[in-house]
Design goal:
heterodimer, A: mainly alpha, Cytochrome Bc1 Complex, Chain D, domain 2, two-stranded antiparallel sheet, 11 helices, B: four-stranded antiparallel beta sheet, two-stranded antiparallel ribbon, 10 strands, about 5% strand, lyase activity (chain A), translocase (chain A), iron ion binding (chain A)
Chain lengths: ~260, ~575
């Protein structure tokens, strides 16, 4: 101890202390940070099958080791959740180049998607696919989910997730047909223009509340046909087409001579 | 002849009322009022009936709506809102939608009727504008109608803001921004309107008072004035045989138009009830209680305010300047105050501009066919084009998602369209009007093409043209052409410069803009000349059915634009009218 005390005014002491502090912070974070390990650890066979699929379908753009290149992101560390979302909604493999990858019918079945996800997850730690319980709308609070949705999501996806426009031809898609798992994985991975809503930002319970709120929307509108839930623009179009259309028709009928 | 009990009772009641009020004179006068037949004369009635429906459904809504910004925690049948903090205004709107029997239907009828009210006003106004029904003596009634349009928009906007949902709160926030963009007075005005910093606790009760008392009261009074002036001036009618500036040809109010117009009310009510029963409008339960932090994509006002939203969306945002510590927000002031100011002022004063250009002090009870007033029609189309571009710009995000276009590109396209679109629309419309007028001249002078080709003895092929009957011809030649005013000479007979010459010269220039390019109706001289030409010895052809058709040798003279100096309008025989006359 005496030796350390003697050197406490050494000019490298602050540096050493700083390194120690950083080491401790990092160590604590590693110990307490949310674990990204998925429930059922994938087998080596899955990873191998996933790698084969990857080489055949994805490596053209993302590179043979998923390291990415110029405008193609690296997949090291994106996690299984990202694969489950991008491949599960058909966004990947990308149909064509454009402002943003469009959803299409998925190209792989769920087993193949799981294998791909296992391979990508094996490249580096990342968000895992949520468990069924984590995305069960019945366990969520739709009222709280609605409030969270309005604050965090509605500015792009619209008041109830009907979708909206972004800049330069990009768009926030409609959430009407998204599964609870897709909503969850989108939040944790932040695909394309979407920001990441990690567990410190929205806790897993809050994510489930949002899922519950979105599930509520499947009940339809108490007021009748939703008109696409587009808001006043849609209503304005229909008042001219249906309202003025029918009434001008009636005017022509009334104004016509009986002879 | 014996009377039934019912007839005796009706006669007795009528006599009782007449002896005490002298009402029979008024009833007789009104019952004999003539209303001309044309579908476009019923557009104003759609607006009137929508307003009646607005009042009826609005009274119902006031029974349950609580105009308060006091905060409560919602506990009610709509589960996705349970436990949320919200204003009493929003909670009572939810209660109206989900607890009050028939409440949601009434809310939806009220809102659809509001959209229809303005749509009908705008359509009615287009009819009045394009047919020139605003000319003397109806200029004042045009202004009354214009004020009704503005009041209708104000009624709509105040009502839209009442439920205190996120969407309408966003609208109020924009209003706040627009008010604050007014130099110097803006921030004081905003504090006055909101009773402090936005959103405050006063705006909903204030809007409520405006929405249910002040604005509808004004609208009601002005509708009374509007209809009184219609009765006073008598209705206009479209030109046709037997229709003159001194009569109205149509059917009496009683019984024909009482039945037609009375029935039309129920048709309007039926259409609104159908829409309200089947189509969701303003689902406030989707938007949630107002909170200044969130905003939803697709946040737009109702359709009649979208042009303001569009102007704001089109304006480049970098036009805000700080001068000596004061912020001048041209990025808000120009689109939200100046552009609509120009469009609406032009609309309001147009009758006076046109009267200035024509120098015409005569009364006009015969409507114009839009083609016969090319500059007016073109001006109207130009204003509508600007309005429509702004409307589309307000919906740019919906266009982007539904047509897979880039929002940025749409904005650039609309910016350019707003600046040049009205001028292109003006030019095209004017050309189309002039072309249609030339087509009319051609028809009058040469008749309809029959498609029958004949071969003359010397081998020439000709097409047989069938002359117009006098009813059809009358409609095409009856109008009086407007010609540019020539200013009086600059110097009087003694060579002294005349006072007021400059003013006359400006007026002449405006008048030239309106009437320099024109196609005048066929004169009787031209008609007889054309007929003599066609019926000349080598042109006379029997059509086989006993009538004599004219033969067209060349149509170049029909396309000639006539300049000033030709004789007046065609004074063909006036065929007798159908229906009854008044005036």
């Amino acid at each position: 101890m005496k030796a350390i005390a003697a050197r406490r005014h050494h000019r490298h002491a602050p540096m050493v202390l700083l390194l120690l502090a950083l080491l401790m912070t990092g160590g604590l974070y590693a110990a307490f940070a949310p674990s990204a390990v998925s429930a059922a650890a994938p087998s080596e066979d899955d990873i191998a099958a996933g790698r084969a699929l990857f080489i055949a379908n994805c490596a053209t753009c993302h590179g043979p080791s998923a390291e990415g290149r110029d405008d193609v992101p690296s997949l090291i560390g994106v996690g299984a959740a990202s694969v489950d979302f991008q491949v599960g909604t058909g966004r990947m493999p990308m149909q064509m180049d454009g402002p943003q990858a469009a959803a299409k019918p998925p190209q792989f079945d769920q087993e193949q998607i799981n294998q791909l996800a296992a391979y990508v997850a094996s490249l580096g730690p990342g968000p895992a696919v949520p468990s069924a319980q984590q995305v069960d709308p019945a366990l969520g609070d739709a009222a709280n989910g609605g409030a969270l949705f309005r604050t965090n999501c509605a500015m792009c996806h619209g008041a109830i997730g009907a979708g909206g426009a972004l800049t330069e031809g990009k768009w926030a898609p409609s959430l009407a047909d998204s599964t609870p798992t897709q909503v969850y994985t989108a939040m944790v991975t932040g695909p394309q223009s979407m920001p990441v809503f990690n567990d410190a930002n929205l806790t897993p319970d809050e994510k489930r509340d949002i899922i519950a709120f979105l599930e509520e929307q499947h009940r339809g509108s108490p007021g009748g046909i939703t008109l696409g839930s587009l808001g006043p623009v849609g209503e304005g179009v229909w008042v001219w087409i249906v309202g003025m259309g029918l009434l001008i028709g009636a005017s022509v009928w009334i104004g016509a001579k009986s002879s | 002849m014996s009377q039934t009990t019912a007839q005796r009772a009706a006669a007795g009641t009528a006599d009782y009322l007449d002896q005490r009020t002298g009402i029979s004179k008024a009833v007789k006068g009104f019952a004999r009022k003539i209303f001309p037949d044309h579908w476009s004369f019923l557009l104003g009635e759609i607006a009137l009936y929508s307003f009646v429906i607005l009042i009826i459904s609005g009274i119902f809504l006031t029974m349950f709506f609580v105009p308060s910004m006091g905060l409560i925690v919602y506990e009610g049948p709509f589960a996705p809102m349970n436990g949320l903090e919200m204003s009493e205004a929003f909670a009572s709107t939810l209660a109206l939608s989900f607890e009050v029997t028939g409440g949601l239907l009434m809310r939806q009828i009220h809102h659809w009727a509001a959209l229809l009210f303005i749509a009908a006003i705008v359509t009615h106004m287009m009819r009045v504008f394009f047919t020139g029904a605003f000319r003397k003596p109806r200029e004042v009634n045009w202004v009354v109608g214009f004020v009704l349009l503005i009041l209708g928009m104000a009624a709509g906007f105040t009502g839209y803001s009442l439920p205190d949902d996120v969407l309408s709160g966003n609208g109020l926030r924009i209003t706040d921004g627009v008010v604050k963009s007014i130099p110097v007075a803006g921030s004081y005005m905003s504090y006055m309107i909101f009773g402090g910093e936005f959103p405050g606790e006063h705006i909903i009760p204030r809007l409520f008072t405006l929405h249910i008392l002040v604005i509808p009261g004004l609208i009601l009074a002005l509708i009374g004035l509007h209809l009184f002036l219609v009765v006073l001036h008598k209705h206009t009618h479209f030109p046709g045989p037997g229709r003159t500036q001194r009569n109205v040809v149509g059917f009496p109010l009683f019984p024909v138009y009482v039945a037609k117009a009375g029935g039309f009310f129920f048709i309007v009510f039926g259409v609104l009830a159908l829409m309200a029963a089947t189509m969701t409008i303003n689902p406030v339960w989707n938007y949630g209680p107002y909170d200044p932090s969130p905003i939803g994509a697709g946040a737009q006002p109702d359709w009649y305010i979208i042009f303001l939203e569009g102007a704001l969306r089109l304006m480049p945002g970098n036009t805000e300047y700080v001068i000596g510590g004061f912020t001048l927000s041209l990025n808000v002031l120009i689109p939200a105050v100046i552009i609509p100011g120009i469009l609406f002022t032009l609309l309001a004063v147009y009758p006076f501009i046109e009267a200035y250009a024509t120098g015409d002090k005569k009364e006009h009870h015969l409507l114009d066919r839009p083609r016969n007033a090319p500059v007016r029609t073109a001006t109207g189309v130009a204003i509508l084009t600007a309005f429509f571009v702004l409307l589309l710009a307000g919906a740019n995000d919906i266009i982007a998602t539904h047509f897979s276009m880039s929002l940025n590109d749409i904005t650039y396209i609309f910016r350019a369209s707003l600046l040049i679109g009205p001028f292109i629309a003006f030019w095209i419309t004017k050309r189309i009007c002039l072309g249609l007028q030339r087509k009319d001249r051609e028809l009058v002078l040469h008749g309809h093409e029959t498609g029958r080709i004949m071969r003359l003895p010397h081998g020439e092929y000709i097409e047989v043209h069938k002359p117009l009957d006098e009813f059809e011809r009358w409609t095409l030649v009856q109008h009086e052409p407007n010609r540019p005013i020539e200013p009086a000479p600059q110097h009087d007979e003694r060579g002294v410069r005349r006072k007021g010459y400059r003013r006359d010269a400006i007026r002449a220039r405006v008048s030239r803009f309106f009437y320099e390019d024109r196609v005048e109706p066929v004169t009787p001289q031209e008609l007889s000349r054309a007929q003599a030409h066609h019926h000349g010895p080598e042109g006379l052809v029997g059509t086989g059915d006993g009538t004599v058709a004219s033969v067209d040798h060349g149509t170049t003279d029909a396309y000639r634009s006539v300049q000033a100096g030709d004789a007046g309008t065609g004074q063909g025989p006036v065929p007798s009218p159908a229906g009854e006359r008044e005036r």
